[in-house]
Structures are given as structure tokens and as C-alpha cells.
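Lab notebook, bench 4. Still working through the backlog of constructs that have no structural model yet. Next entry is a single chain of 470 residues. Request: give me the C-alpha cells for it.
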Amino acid sequence: MFRSWSRIANNLYSSSITSEKLFVISFISLIAVGTMLLLLPVSTTHQISFTDALFTSTSAVCVTGLTTLDTATEFTWFGKMVILFLFQLGGIGVMTFTSFFASVGRSKHSLSEGNALTSMVVAKNMRKLFTALYAVIIVTFIVEIFGTILIYLQLPQSEFPDNISRFTFALFHAVSSFCNAGFSLAPNGLMNNIFYHEWGIQMTIAWLVIFGGLGFFIITNYMERFGLSMRNFIKHTILGKASKFEPNLININSRLVVRTTFWLLVIGTGLFMLFENNSMLSGLRWDEKIYTAFFSTVTARTAGFNTIDYEFILLPSTLLIIILMWIGASPGSTGGGIKTSTFAVAFLTAFSLGRGKSTTHFHNRELSRQSGRKAMVVIFFSIFAILLATMLLAWFEPGVSLERLLFEAFSAFGTVGLSMNLTASLSEQSKYVLIFLMFLGRIGIITLFVAFIRKTRFLLFSYPEEELFI
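Model written out:
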């Protein structure tokens, strides 16, 4: 099997196909395979339509969690394992697996392989690229196994016929959480009695979502820093030797992403508690209100699990969740959205312009103007795509309120999976609109542009510059 994967990967790399096209084709291929598997009679309890199979496959591969069918009741054990397989591969990235198997069969790697992988997982240092690949797979499985054990130990035995069912249930939700997929084997998802008042399980899922949403290289970056600190502690305190000093071990991208994530969680939790204190959270104790607000804020940033019914939250809370879904997770992670770094760069750029500065700084570093331009492009086209999709949804669903349609569109683009109980009742046309939004949100607007728009040749001259009224 490894050799066949290697041959396929090597043929792709040796062809003239760009890394961005390879990235897009990989996702399309996985979605197609998933659709065919879900259409098999062995996958479902009854025959499903092609549209529903495609929708479920796209949602799983793009780690969204929006469903037109109830995963718990309408899919067999085989179908559920197919869905698990799809969002595991979709979460880590098809390119990670393909390149890993290719590296098994080759001792040398071309620059094109490195570039393709860099497009997928945002690895900046080419010399550490393949080391990072192994780290991605190892870290993923370690976190998922650890999460599975924690969830398994907290699940009530009375809800399961045997320990195998209990373990499978725990494994599915641990992988779904870390991959930010939002799929659940419980009827009504995390609103089911198995989870509803199990705060320990909810917090375990929330932290798995956070780790998956941070990104593999941010996790390993902090693991390197922690490992160095532990080695220095042992050398200095126990062995009495001199400590090793390495400046700037935590890179600027990691600092920016972690700080942005922290403030989004803090502000989001506080605002959700403020808005829903006398509404959705009115019957809970203060600690339960904090848990529910925190969990809702975490999962709104691309995970899609819900312990409350979003159809009945207040309008300010709806707008808050929409903003969190739009921002999403971090680059190189299992989540979607415009990404925390994009939002942070745009915010810092706007703040710098407001103060009359021509450059943008963060943590004693000047951010490149190219980063600022990319951030603005992503923001503009994300809003354009979402509004265009909402307009189409309003055309296809004339009886549905604009609020619910906007919520659905932002959820699909951000690969979140939250819904105001609308997805299953949508028309065929609307389902295809959401399929495209989920795919676009997972692939990324810039990646899609670069993959299919011909690059301009380098110009040996420049035009006169003009100032425009803004």
C-alpha cells in the first residue's frame, strides 16, 4: 500500500501541476471517494440521495459538521467509520498523508515536494519540513488518544451496552473535536443527556477543539519551548550544569495566534454571558453559565458542537457567534474561517493607519506589507462570497428569515457546523450553495485563486503612482 501511495504521489510531483492545484485536487478526490462510500447500502440504514451523500462527505472532509442527515440514526457502523475517516484525513490534510507515504518510498525529495507541503501546512523552514510532517501525525494521534481516554473515563456506563461501544463513542468524539469537525454519534449532538450536564466531558472536548484550532506547528513550537525549559531545569537544578539559551524560540506567528485566540475566547465568553444571562443561561448556576458560555465561544470558532439551541438565542448573541465563526481558527490548523492571524494583521494594520503610521508592528517586529495585503484580500472576498451565497439562499428559501440564512452561510464558510435547525430542511439548490461554501472555506480563497488564475510575469518596469480618494 505504501508503494502504491508513493507512486501516485511521485507522479503528481513530477508533473507540471502546481502545489495549489494538487492541494485542491486532493480534497476534491477525497470528497468524491467519500460520496461513493456513503452511497453504498452498507453505509446507511436506508437509501440516501446523491446530494445528501455529497453534502455529508464535503462536510466531513472540510471538517464542518453541517448535516442534512442524523449521523447517529441514519448511518450504520460502517458509514460512521467512513465519516470518521473523512474528517480525520480532512482535518490533518490530504497532502500530509500523501507526502508522508511518498517519503517512505524515496530517500531524496525535490523542491516541488517541499513547496506543495508548505502550501498545505504553512511550514516556513524547508530543512525542518519532513521532520514537521512526522510531528503532525505523531502529535495528532497522541492528542486524540489522550482525549479518547479522558472522554471514555467520564462517559456514564449505563448509556452503553458494552465497553467497546463506549470506547468507539469516545474515540469518534475525540477525533471529531481535535479535527474541529463537529460530528456526533449522539442524537441531538451534545444537547443529548449524555453530555448536557457532564461539564468534564464538555471541557475535555473544548480543549481538544482549542488545540486542533491552534495548528500543529504552533503546538510543536510551544512543545519545543517547554522541552528546552525542562531540559534547562534538569541541567541547572538537578545536575548543576549551565542552561542552554536559545533566543526567539517562540516565533512571531505563534505569539500572534495564541494572543488572538486568548482574547477572542475571553471577550467571546464574557459577551455571551452578558447577552444570554437572563435568557438561554437563566436557569443555570454561575459556574454552569461560565462553562456554557466558554464552550459556546470555543465551538463557534469552527468546531460546531452545541449544548444549546441556537435557534432561540438573542440577536446580539447571534451576531457574536457569526463574528466568531467568520474569524475561525488559525492557519495550518484543522479549522476554517478567515483565520486568527488574518484578523489580527488586519486589526493591527487598521490600528497603525489610525495612528498615522506607515508600517505595522507586533512584538518588536515589523509585519510585511504583503501580509497586510493578503489579509485584506481574504477579508474582502470572504465577505463577498458569504453575501453572494446568502443572496442565493434567500432566493431559494423565500420563507426563511435573513438572520437564519446568514447564520447558515457563515457557518458553512467558517467550516463550523452550527445551525439554527435549518440545514436538513433546505432545498437541493441551497445544499449545493453550502457545499461550495464549505469547500471554499476549507481550501482558502487565496489558494483557490493561485490554483486556477494564471500568474502574471515579472514586469521590468513600473507605472506612475497615483493617490486616490478613500
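Notes after review: DSSP finds 20 helices and two strands in the chain. The first strand starts at residue 360 and ends at 362. Flag for follow-up if needed.
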